[in-house]
UniProtKB/TrEMBL annotation:
Residue ranges of coiled coil: none
Signal sequence region: none
Protein name as it appears in the record: DH200=94 genomic scaffold, scaffold_2358
Natural source organism: Coffea canephora
Subcellular location: Nucleus
Keywords: Activator, Nucleus, Transcription, Transcription regulation
């Protein structure tokens, strides 16, 4: 393994600064990010040196089995040595050099018995703690419930406005219909009283003047045509179709 700046537990690093204290068990550190640009500019980020870079972050626990291997000048990710130990350890589960590295923290109780605890990933030089699956589900469900509740509130407010407008329109229509259908008998009696009083006050209409002697009212063409049609109908009604139409119209036996 290439030699890189590392600091054992309880000692100071190259800059004389004590290493960060190990995080408390169960501490949620998903809201922080670690990045050391000076280290990235000095050393390449690959599967051999990524753990040394991870050991500089506050996510690293200095009492792990990997740190004991580092003190013995053994690569901290050597599975042959880690499988013989018990306790907390880190392992590199996935690597896509040089952009993505996934490091898993687990508790080892035997060569074949390990219990996963937390997961970290190094993305383009920045180290993050991955959230637990239960927290992801809780966050997604909370977000979905928020949007569903917001949608229901919006629909309910719009339906209330529509129902209020419809009720108002129905009330107005019923009032206008009732006002149209209602007959005010007092107003009718009042109008009849006014007409009767006017009729009593006004003089009677004069009779129509008589026609002069020898005057005959003119007849129009329509009047003449109407009188002729009436006479023709009368004649047709009085004539018998056999007797009164002459011998040529009678049926010969």
């Amino acid at each position: 393994m290439a030699a890189t700046p590392s600091a054992p537990a309880g000692s100071a690093n190259i800059d004389g600064v004590a290493p960060p204290a190990p995080p408390l068990p169960g501490t949620d550190m998903t809201g922080i990010c670690f990045r050391d640009q000076l280290w990235l500019n000095t050393y390449p980020l690959d599967r051999n040196l990524v753990f040394d870079y991870f050991a500089l972050s506050p996510f690293y626990e200095w009492t792990c089995n990997n740190e004991q291997l580092r003190l013995r000048s053994i690569h901290p990710l050597d599975a042959s040595h880690l499988s013989k130990m018990t306790g907390t350890e880190y392992t590199l589960s996935e690597a896509m050099e040089p952009h993505l590295f996934v490091i898993r923290k687990q508790k080892r109780d035997g060569p074949e018995k390990v219990i996963p605890m937390l997961t970290y990933y190094v993305l383009d030089g920045s180290i993050y703690q991955a959230p637990q699956l239960c927290n992801v589900f809780a966050s997604r469900l909370g977000r979905a419930l928020y949007h569903i509740s917001k949608a229901f509130n919006t629909v309910a407010s719009k339906l209330e406005k529509i129902g209020y407008v419809d009720a108002e329109n129905e009330t107005t229509a019923s009032e206008s219909k009732a006002s149209k259908e209602t007959i005010d008998f007092k107003e009718i009696k009042r109008v009849d009283h006014i007409l009767a009083s006017l009729q009593r006050k006004l003089p009677a209409a004069p009779p129509a003047p008589a026609f002069p002697e020898g005057y005959t009212p003119p007849t129009t063409a329509e009047g003449e045509k109407g009188s002729e049609d009436q006479q023709a109908e009368l004649q047709t009604a009085t004539l018998d179709p056999i007797i009164d139409q002459g011998p040529s119209k009678r049926v010969k036996l």
